[in-house]
Write a structure and sequence with these properties.
Helix content: 40-55%
CATH architecture of one domain: Orthogonal Bundle
Order of helices and strands: HHEHHEHHHEE
Number of helices: 7
Number of strands: 4
């Protein structure tokens, strides 16, 4: 019986290795599976940090658990932007595959985010006042400038004068 269990375990490990080789997450250098959690590897193996900080749990894309984790931290950071939400998730020792895409879909469907980041309203033009649209003879209300600007000497300087337009 023990040899049958060992054979089944060996086949399971080979199947997982095959899946990992074909997966997009091979670039993250995943470690061996522990308790159903797949931690990612990296260059911090010898660092004096907590295990969860060195090796966050890898959560797959298009998974219900990934969506629940993302929703939890999206609400926890009070509907902040993408960077803040991702920072909170990574600080909690999770690594989401395609997390930006998942967060974009969550923000697109979030009612609070739609209200906060909605398009600005366009102002509606008011009606023209009555005194501007009355029918009157041509050139009844006209103003025009005959002389234009006058250049006036405002103060004398050492090299000349400072002129102003009036």
């Amino acid at each position: 019986m023990n040899s049958v269990q060992n054979e089944n375990t060996r086949k399971l490990i080979q199947r997982r290795k095959k899946v990992l080789k074909e997966s997009d997450s091979t670039r993250l250098d995943p470690l061996t599976v522990e308790n159903g959690i797949l931690p990612i590897g990296g260059q911090l193996r010898r660092a004096e940090m907590e295990y969860g900080d060195k090796h966050p749990a890898l959560l797959p894309k298009n998974n219900h658990l990934s969506k629940l984790v993302m929703l939890h931290y999206h609400n926890k950071v009070h509907h902040q932007g993408r960077q803040i939400t991702h920072g909170a998730i990574r600080q909690a020792s999770y690594w989401l595959v395609s997390g930006h895409r998942l967060l974009a879909s969550i923000r697109r469907n979030c009612v609070t985010c739609k209200k906060l980041r909605g398009a600005a309203f366009n102002q509606i033009m008011a009606d023209i006042p009555c005194n501007r649209i009355k029918l009157a003879a041509t050139f009844t209300n006209v103003g025009f400038d005959v002389f234009g600007l006058w250049t006036v000497l405002t103060r004398k300087t050492r090299g000349g004068a400072a002129n102003s337009k009036r």
